[in-house]
Amino acid sequence: MSQPPDRTQPGEDARLTLSYDGTDYQGEMPAPELSAVLASLTDLAQGLSAADALGGGNRPRVRVQAFREGSFDIAAIVEAIGPGGYVVSGAGFLGAGFTFWWKNMRRVVVDAKHDADRGMWLVTMRSGEILDWTEEEWRIYNNKRIKQAVKGIAAPLRNGASLTLETPAETVTVPASDAHLFETEEEDEPAPEERRFETWVFPDTVSFNPDTKWRLWSRDTGSFAATIEDTRFADDVHLGRVRIGRNDSFKVALRSVTARVEHEKPRPRWFVERVIEHHPGAEQRELTDDAD
After folding, report:
1. Same domain, 87 and 177
2. Can you give the pLDDT at residue 206?
3. Cα–Cα distances in Å, from 117 out to 121, 132, 250?
4. In the predicted model, is pLDDT for residue 213 greater than 90?
5. Considering 123, 155, 182, which residue would you say is the last residue of a domain?
6. Position 4 in a domain
7. Burial class (CB in 10 A: 0-12, 13-18, 19+), 188
8. What's the confidence (pLDDT) of residue 191?
9. Does a structural domain hold residue 202?
10. Are β-strands 249-258 and 269-279 bridged in parallel, bridged antiparallel, or unpaired?
11. Structural domain span for residue 212
């Protein structure tokens, strides 16, 4: 390949035109196909760069040029095809969905009650505001795919662009200064589930180190490792005031903390908050050589 000319701003020879001619490509192209073509074009440029085929370690930049000066417009024809094959305009639905999510995306729902008789949701926000939402609006608010799509549509705002979304029913303009509003906060992880109860436990091993976890067994939980939070009991063991045998039993105040992690099996962490009772087990007496 020939070495590209050395210039800061590429000229006409930097333009690449792709033409698709067919009955379904008369001045329009399905959005998924257009997106796939543009993504593939970018992948091609990046692949050539990785193969050092663009010359001198140059990095590719692929942009789509507008048809008129002043802005880049995407004229999308949105159709909804019904079960009977009839077609209706879907632009209004997309515009209304974008607008609803944009206006409500920074609100945090703390309570929601479904009114089946009215087909509505009574939604309480963290701010104390109470709203009536339709079932459709409730589904929109909770749909993660819609959230990511809105963020993707608004992505150019981070580079200083404003966004105007226009349908036959309404026009919405979002200034570049609102870019930070679309950087949705990460969803809070669910609070760990805590459970407290008293139970009898037995040492799973006679080796006990107060500085490490204690291996225990109970009929309620099976075998588990627990952190000793009862410092007085741990000190008694450390100073030899309490000796632990294999057959001992303990009544303890136990706490389990279970964090819910997506795609992982919940695993509780165990803590002995207090040793309530300690019953030394029976010890086998050593036999002597002397016969009675």
Report:
1. yes
2. 66
3. 10, 13, 55
4. no
5. 182
6. no
7. exposed
8. 59
9. yes
10. antiparallel
11. 193-279
For residues 164 and 92, state if they share a domain.
yes
- CA gap 222, 45 in Å, rounded: 58
Task: Specify whether 210 is located in the same domain as 273.
Answer: yes
Integer-rounded Cα Rg, in Å, for the chain is 34
Query: Is 142 domain-assigned?
Result: yes
Count other Cβ atoms within 10 Å, centred on residue 80. Answer: 13
Query: Looking at residue 132, what is its pLDDT?
Result: 94
**Among 7-21, 73-87, 212-226, which stretch is predicted with the lowest mean pLDDT?**
7-21
Going by the DSSP 8-state scheme, the letter that residue 13 receives in this structure is G
Last residue of a domain, one of 162, 182, 202: 182
Q: Does an H or E element contain 169, and which? A: none
The span from the CA of 32 to the CA of 40, in Å, is: 12
Residue 57: predicted pLDDT: 67
Whether residues 128 and 221 fall in one domain? no
| Total domain count, the chain | 3
CA separation for the pair 41, 62 (Å, rounded): 8
Going from the C-alpha of 46 to that of each of 18, 59, 280, the distances in angstroms are 18, 8, 72
Q: Considering the domain boundaries, does residue 289 fall inside one? A: no
- How would you class 182 by CB atoms within 10 Å of its CB: exposed for 0-12, middle for 13-18, buried for 19 or more? buried
Asked if residues 266 and 290 have their Cβ atoms less than 8 Å apart, the reply is: no
Predicted confidence at residue 291, as pLDDT, reads 46
Q: Is 275 or 236 the better-scoring residue by pLDDT?
A: 275
Give the chain's mean pLDDT: 79
